[in-house]
């Protein structure tokens, strides 16, 4: 069970990396981008498209986990720096609603994944499927290697197709824009961490129970890791795509 819990947290680590990279680039480039009319205008123009998606994903997931929504702002030019927000509360005694905090926090990232999948399907980009081999081994290094290898294969496919035509270059920019505005915020990360610990505990308990209740426990565990492997790999690809949009904004800040 301990290895399962560690592996679960390891599979969540790309989410942490994504947020750290995004926040780091924001601190390094944000002021320069905001000082230039062209890059600032492009940032807010893209935010008018991306921020409503970000906040809508929070709201939908909050409703699914029976949270009470008090106020939604899909987009604003707020003096506090917030482009949008969803105010909600929940019953802290409810395990279901508390687990929901994790999924509400990462909901924008799930939207980014859906957008990538939808656009890839539309442009006939065949994403590489990961191996369905049993990933639950004492060696966590093998798990780390699997995540990075799958992420590199995904990025290789995306990069190859995005450079074959101007239409696919446009797809790459659109995908990076969606990913850029669907990165969970620092506040989202704090909520995800709280909910993630509970999610991990619930999954560990479910795995422990499955040992006694299910005959194909090994197959179920393999499927679980397969799903999380794909989520982790997609998260790393999203991290790269956010850098593409940061690069676009930075280049525009050099122009004027």
What fraction strand? under 5%
Helix content bin: over 70%
| SS element count, helices | 7
Q: Separation of termini? A: 56 Å
Major sheet details: 2 strands, antiparallel
Radius of gyration: 19 Å
Estimated structural class: mainly alpha
The total of beta strands comes to 2
Mean pLDDT metric: 77
Q: Per the principal axes of the C-alpha atoms, what is the gross shape? A: globular
- Give start-end ranges of low-pLDDT stretches: 132-136
Transmembrane segments: 99-120, 158-183, 195-215, 227-252
Keywords: Membrane, Transmembrane, Transmembrane helix
Structure description:
With 256 residues, the chain is mostly helical. The chain has one domain (1-46, 108-254). The chain contains seven helices and two strands; from the N terminus they run ααββααααα. Strands 1-2 form a two-stranded antiparallel ribbon. It is globular, with a radius of gyration of 19 Å. The model is unreliable at 132-136 (pLDDT under 50). Keywords: Membrane, Transmembrane, Transmembrane helix. The chain crosses the membrane at residues 99-120, 158-183, 195-215, 227-252.
Offer a concise description of the structure.
The chain is mainly alpha-helical and 256 residues long. The chain is built from seven helices and two strands.
What structural keywords apply?
transmembrane helix; 256 residues; globular; membrane; mainly alpha; two-stranded antiparallel sheet; transmembrane
């Amino acid at each position: 069970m301990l290895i399962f819990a560690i592996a679960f947290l390891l599979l969540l680590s790309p989410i942490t990396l994504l947020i750290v990279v995004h926040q780091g680039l924001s601190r390094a480039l944000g002021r320069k981008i905001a000082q230039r009319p062209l890059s600032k205008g492009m940032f807010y123009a893209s935010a008018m498209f991306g921020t409503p998606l970000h906040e809508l994903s929070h709201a939908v997931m909050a409703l699914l986990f029976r949270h009470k929504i008090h106020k939604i702002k899909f987009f604003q030019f707020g003096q506090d720096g917030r482009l949008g927000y969803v105010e909600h509360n929940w019953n802290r005694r409810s395990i279901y609603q508390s687990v929901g905090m994790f999924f509400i926090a990462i909901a924008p990232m799930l939207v980014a994944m859906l957008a990538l999948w939808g656009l890839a399907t539309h442009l006939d980009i065949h994403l590489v499927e990961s191996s369905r081999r049993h990933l639950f081994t004492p060696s966590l290094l093998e798990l780390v290697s699997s995540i990075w290898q799958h992420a590199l294969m995904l990025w290789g496919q995306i990069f190859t197709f995005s450079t074959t035509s101007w239409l696919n270059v446009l797809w790459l920019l659109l995908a990076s824009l969606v990913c850029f505005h669907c990165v969970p915020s620092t506040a989202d990360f704090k909520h995800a961490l709280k909910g993630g610990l509970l999610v991990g505990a619930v999954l560990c308990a479910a795995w422990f129970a499955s040992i006694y209740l299910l005959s194909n426990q090994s197959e179920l565990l393999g499927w679980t890791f397969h799903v999380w492997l794909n989520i982790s790999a997609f998260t790393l690809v999203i991290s790269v795509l956010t850098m593409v949009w940061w690069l676009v904004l930075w280049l525009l800040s050099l122009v004027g």
